[in-house]
């Protein structure tokens, strides 16, 4: 068993999810590699000490990420910090020669993202990937398999989205995602967007233009003192795009919503084609809807329960239901697999790349320009 020694920078919710995934590694079958969390860093030492108390392999707890990066026994880093810290910390991680799985959006804006890409180019032996777990749901993974098999025919149109509803409550306390200084001008696009564009970009569906509809639904929220303060960032975004590939053109609708009533954590993708149409949503995690079509034949959607089967085999029986923590475990397996085996990965779906994150930055930058001009903006 090859152990990949990880440091975690940012010990909040997603850092704890990684710790849980590492602790459940035996859930995966027939792998000869595993992550081992050996160091943690957070500005709030109480958050870092959560790991010290629960993860026996942790030997370094610090509030100085440079101390973690100087540790020669650390192979890789998972970094989950607010967007305004991405450029500096990600660049330092890469220059330190540590492999990186970082949270989206890989920089607060396009300039910050370009600084990260420059560091990657200067350090080609460092593996850098972006966290995006939803494509590892069995239904989403199957939709991707059908793309690789060329089963859709000519694409008619595509819709993808990621919707939350917790921010519908106007009394919810303001956080860093509501401030331009820490979240960036992208608002919900930076926070949710890579999840929405990950699969379309992986399939080669790059928008050639965008018309953006952006909305601020709740204008102010209480701070820690109970004072009402402005919400500076976008709550919801709907992006209408045209896709042009070498052999076809079609419309694509992308939506990112922090305020979508009734949706706790809904990610979905829908692909309509001349030979096959299909859709998957985490609202119904066991089901894939599909419509195979032959000319002159019937047009009937069918709903199929998908077995508990994703990129990597597990000890769980196929009749059981797959969940968010399972998707995170699968994503981590893909990252570790690529780190250990490179192009000889055990299965073909790898984590979101820095180049895909960069494409998302260009899209969201164009979307902001579209909002200002109230017009369709061509992608640079």
From TrEMBL:
InterPro entries: Gfo/Idh/MocA-like_OxRdtase_N, Gfo/Idh/MocA_oxidrdct_glycsds, GFO_IDH_MocA-like_dom, NAD(P)-bd_dom_sf. Residues 4-127 form the Gfo/Idh/MocA-like oxidoreductase N-terminal domain. It comes from the Bacteria. Residues 143-244 form the GFO/IDH/MocA-like oxidoreductase domain. Pfam families: GFO_IDH_MocA, GFO_IDH_MocA_C3. Transmembrane segments: none annotated. This is Gfo/Idh/MocA family protein. Keywords: Oxidoreductase.
